[in-house]
Write a structure and sequence with these properties.
Layout: H1 2-23, E1 26-31, H2 46-56, E2 62-65, H3 73-87, E3 91-95, H4 98-102, H5 107-123, E4 127-131, H6 141-158, E5 161-163, H7 189-200
Parallel strand pairs: 1-2, 1-3, 3-4, 4-5
C-alpha cells in the first residue's frame, strides 16, 4: 500500500508537465541575458511576469524560460531539439543573436543558426516569434546594417512574427538600464512585457491554449 501511494504521488507530481506537452500549451523562451533575469530575482523578469499575465487573462499556457546569460545562436541551436521534444511548445520565442553580434561572429553563421531554429520549430508545428536584436555602430557600418536587417529578412522569408528589439523603448530611459548600460533593470521588466504582449497575444487562443497558424498575418 505504501509503495502504491508513493507511485501515485510521483505520477501526480509530473502530471502537469506531461499535460502541457501533450496539449501544446507551452511557450518556450530561448534567449540570452535579456530574458534570463540578469541582475534581478527570477520572479521579477519579464518571462515570469508573462506567466502571471497569461493566467490573469484566462490562458492555459505555461512559460518555460530557457534563457542563458551569454548564450549565442549556436548554443540555442544545440539546446532547441531537446526543448521541442520535452515541451512540445505551441510557441517558441527566439531571443538570440545579440552576443553573436557583440563578438563579431560571421553573419552567415548567425543567420544559418537562426534559420535552422526556425525551421526545426516550424517542422514541429510550433509558432515562432523572432525577437529582433541590435548592436552598436562601432562594429562597422556594413556589419551593423546587415546584422540589424537580418531579423526582418528572416521573418519575411519564413512568414513568422517579428518582435521589435526588446530595449528600443527603454534603453535611454533613466532607471531602466543597469550600470553596464546593456541590461535592463527589474523596473524595466513590466515595460518589456508590454512590448512583447501585442506580438504574442495574436498567436494565442484562450483557455485551451491551442495556437493559431504560425505564419504572420
Amino acid at each position: 500500500m505504501r509503495l502504491k501511494l508513493i507511485l501515485l504521488l510521483v505520477l501526480f507530481s509530473f502530471a502537469p508537465v506531461s499535460a502541457i506537452a501533450e496539449g501544446g500549451t507551452a511557450i518556450v523562451i530561448l534567449g540570452d541575458s535579456l530574458s534570463a533575469a540578469y541582475g534581478m530575482e527570477i520572479n521579477q523578469s519579464w518571462p515570469s511576469l508573462l506567466q502571471e499575465r497569461l493566467k490573469g487573462n484566462g490562458y492555459a499556457y505555461r512559460v518555460f524560460n530557457s534563457s542563458i546569460t551569454g548564450d549565442t545562436t549556436q548554443g540555442g541551436l544545440a539546446r532547441l531539439p531537446r526543448l521541442l521534444e520535452k515541451h512540445r511548445p505551441a510557441v517558441v520565442i527566439l531571443e538570440l543573436g545579440g552576443n553573436d553580434g557583440l563578438r563579431g561572429l560571421p553573419l552567415e553563421v548567425t543567420r544559418a543558426n537562426l534559420s535552422s531554429m526556425i525551421e526545426q520549430s516550424q517542422a514541429a508545428g510550433t509558432a515562432v516569434i523572432l525577437a529582433e536584436m541590435r548592436i552598436p555602430p562601432n562594429y562597422g557600418r556594413s556589419y551593423t546594417e546587415k546584422f540589424n536587417a537580418m531579423y526582418t529578412e528572416l521573418s519575411e522569408i519564413y512568414g513568422i512574427h517579428l518582435l521589435p528589439f526588446l530595449l528600443q523603448d527603454i534603453a535611454l530611459e533613466e532607471g531602466l538600464m543597469q550600470a553596464d548600460g546593456i541590461h535592463p533593470t527589474a523596473q524595466a521588466q513590466p515595460a518589456i512585457l508590454d512590448h512583447v504582449w501585442p506580438v504574442l497575444q495574436p498567436v494565442l487562443t484562450p483557455e485551451n491554449g491551442t495556437h493559431k497558424h504560425s505564419s504572420a498575418e
